[in-house]
Amino acid sequence: MSNLKELPKPNSEINDYEWGITPSPVKSTINHLQQLLQQKQQHLDKLQQENKWLRNQLEITIDKPNRPHVAPLPEVMLWTAIGVILTAAGTFIPASSLAAPWSWWGNGLSVQTLGVSYQIGAVLLTACLGGKNAAMLSQIIYILLGILGLPIFDRGGGSIYLQQPHFGYLLGFVVGAWICGWLAFQSLAKFATLIASCIVGLITIHLVGITYLTIMYFVTGLGAEINSLMQAIAIYSLHPLPGQLAVVCAISLIAFVMRKVMFT
Asked: Which of 64, 85, 112 is the last residue of a domain?
């Protein structure tokens, strides 16, 4: 009997006097109900944890094509090799697109050149599919092969290329590819994310290239054909930029489709 009186009060709203005069069978029943309630609550908590785990597993399965992909080392090396090949090949393939629809009436369906090659497109495509490390390594290897004499640059190759005003844009491939690849795998594989990553990568390439132009202009000069720094920036950045943006749009769409297909 004394043990029942020592049972804790169910809540603080019951004072000691009320609890003291409560019949022992009632106290025992209340205590038993509280124990059952605690057991049910523990069971409910366990079920909620299991439900949360199952929901997370289901989300992983459903959203797997959209989740960031972490490439293992063999895959990085494979994309590095692919990136070198794509960049070298893209250097010599001029980019083109369909002519404006309003010109079809007189000339029919025709193709027009964009004034640039697919070189930058290859750099950014490698970044969007292979990731930052593969993209950066592929451009380092590409530049080294060109400097060593392999004619894979747009005007040949060799160490003499270091003195070319536009060599800074090749150096920009390394930084721009890494940034593009890093951004492309920071979030879900969405077209908006990929095109934003490519645009940031393209801007980075031009910033590095313009920095190289500026240093050359004040140190060694840019040659007899270029009279000012602004002229050099116009030649190597402003004039090809519209065509490069068109290539970026196409590359982003290709990367989006391939990411959906590959990472399932």
From this structure: 64
Give the separation between CA 256 and CA 65, rounded to whole angstroms: 11
230-248 tens-digit pLDDT: 999 999 999 999 999 999 9
d(CA 111, CA 71): 38
Q: Are residues 140 and 227 in the same domain?
A: yes
- Domain residues for the domain of 160 are 69-262
- Regarding whether 124 and 42 lie in a shared domain, the answer is no
Looking at residue 65, its pLDDT comes to 47
Q: Which two tokens stand for residue 143?
A: 């530049």
Amino acid identity, position 244: Q
CATH number of the domain that 110 lies in? Answer: 1.10.1760.20
Query: And the tokens for 74?
Result: 């063999």
- CB neighbours of 195 closer than 8 A, spacing ≥ 6? 248, 249, 252
Please state the pTM of the whole predicted model.
Answer: 0.72
Answer whether 181's CB lies under 8 Å from 226's CB: no
